[in-house]
Design a protein that fits this description.
5 strands; five-stranded parallel β-sheet; globular; alpha/beta; single chain
């Protein structure tokens, strides 16, 4: 059915009480195969993205979004700080980036894979939004990635 929607420019995968739309629990490697039909997505918002579950082939799964997405929001993404930075680096045309946390516990930080180097540096011509940002070391990594904020 998604192939019938070539004009869709925004996708939001969110948690919530309604039964309409895509939920984070249903957004995985199997269901992501349905999304290549949407070739002009500009705004992508994903709650609870489990980045490690898409590794190491994450670029293959999200590749069709990479040329067009310019507004990216991740709320409560799962993964190490290197995995999150690597995911941002996949998007070559970002204007706005939002990283939102309702809560964050530094004790829950997963181990980093130091071999993960972002494939590119998104230009961020617009805004960088950080909410309830307590992820240890991630802010410094983001400043290093974007060359200053």
């Amino acid at each position: 059915m998604l192939g019938l929607l070539p004009l869709v420019q925004s996708i939001r995968i969110c948690r919530g009480g309604n039964k309409v739309g895509f939920s984070p629990e249903l957004f995985n490697r199997r269901t992501l195969r349905q999304f290549p039909a949407l070739t002009d997505i500009r705004t992508l918002w994903i709650d609870d993205l489990d980045i490690p579950s898409f590794m190491p082939m994450i670029q293959r799964y999200f590749g069709h979004f990479l040329p067009t997405v310019d507004y990216l929001t991740l709320k409560e993404p799962k993964g190490s700080r290197r995995q999150i930075i690597y995911f941002f680096g996949l998007f070559q045309h970002l204007e706005d980036l939002r990283l939102l946390y309702d809560r964050a516990d530094p004790r829950d930080e997963p181990a980093d894979d130091l071999s993960l180097i972002p494939p590119s540096v998104p230009p961020l011509r617009g805004w960088l939004w950080l909410c309830n940002f307590t992820r240890v070391g991630l802010l410094k990594d983001m400043i290093d990635l974007f060359g200053g904020i």
